[in-house]
Structure to design on (305 residues):
């Protein structure tokens, strides 16, 4: 009983997946294929990042997607992964799109193009640096919600990452006002994130609406792999249910804690994180110790077990 998870924004680093690209034809062909679809020199951005484009949302999302897909396809091919042994796929924010492509519910071209547009919409949704995001370390979502309510803070929970890490989004002035309040309420760390906008909040409402029609047009294939939605934290392999949840993902909370607990409730035992870095594995271990977790981020990870 295996589930596969895919990372989101923040996991990127220069050179991610290059070892796969250099050593496996399937990884190289995947890069080339996605580049042809999106008309962006992804190899230059990911492997060199000379102009720091990889940290601009326009490019970040499609870069992480490309790296993750390339690693997954290599792992699938080299280890003869049987999709019938995969029960669930899910991803953190943009990683949900990676899950949809890797589960073959959406073809690679459609998924690449809609994710490219998603990154552009999110990047252009508000004036840069007027809104932002902060990670709160040492508290759960219930505590954060109470602090927001008790102090009339106009912020939203963007990511419920674990019982020890919550990310909030909002206006930069309101975020700054909240710092002392959170520290006084025993939040251990208040960490500004290196992003230009308040993702997964009301500031993304217009961008979210602009993506509705594109999501409606997606031709989702039904198969036995269930997708756990960021928006609802529910598992489904019904195409319309998946699309309807995807429509509301951009401007609402990523329910990562609930999503992982859902896997636990279904009796899942094994989780494989595929993509750059090991961020999700760390979060999962803070949510529950019920899983045997494996990460596939570098070539050596394929032969580790």
């Amino acid at each position: 009983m295996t589930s596969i998870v895919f990372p989101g924004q923040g996991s990127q680093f220069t050179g991610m997946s290059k070892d796969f690209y250099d050593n496996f034809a399937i990884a190289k062909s995947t890069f080339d294929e996605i580049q042809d679809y999106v008309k962006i020199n992804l190899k230059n951005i990911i492997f060199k990042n000379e102009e720091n484009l990889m940290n601009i949302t326009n490019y970040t999302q499609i870069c992480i997607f490309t790296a993750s897909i390339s690693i997954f396809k290599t792992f699938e091919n080299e280890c003869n992964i049987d999709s019938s042994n995969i029960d669930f796929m899910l991803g953190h924010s943009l990683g949900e799109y990676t899950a949809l492509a890797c589960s073959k519910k959406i073809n690679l071209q459609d998924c690449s193009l809609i994710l490219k547009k998603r990154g552009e919409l999110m990047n252009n949704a508000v004036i840069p640096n007027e809104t932002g995001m902060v990670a709160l370390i040492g508290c759960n979502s219930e505590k954060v919600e109470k602090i927001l309510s008790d102090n009339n803070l106009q912020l939203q929970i963007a990511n419920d990452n674990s019982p020890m890490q919550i990310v909030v989004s909002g206006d930069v002035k309101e975020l700054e006002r909240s710092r002392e309040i959170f520290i006084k309420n025993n939040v251990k760390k208040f960490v500004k994130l290196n992003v230009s906008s308040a993702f997964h909040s009301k500031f993304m409402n217009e961008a979210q609406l602009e993506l509705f029609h594109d999501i409606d047009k997606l031709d989702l294939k039904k198969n036995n792999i269930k997708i756990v939605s960021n928006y609802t934290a529910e598992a489904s392999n019904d195409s319309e249910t998946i699309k309807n949840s995807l429509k509301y993902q951009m401007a609402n909370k990523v329910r990562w804690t609930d999503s992982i607990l859902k896997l636990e409730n279904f009796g899942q035992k094994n989780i494989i994180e595929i993509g750059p870095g090991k961020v999700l594995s760390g979060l999962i271990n803070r949510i529950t110790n019920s899983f045997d977790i494996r990460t596939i981020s570098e070539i050596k990870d394929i032969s580790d077990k």
About this structure: The chain has two domains: 2-125+202-302, 131-192.
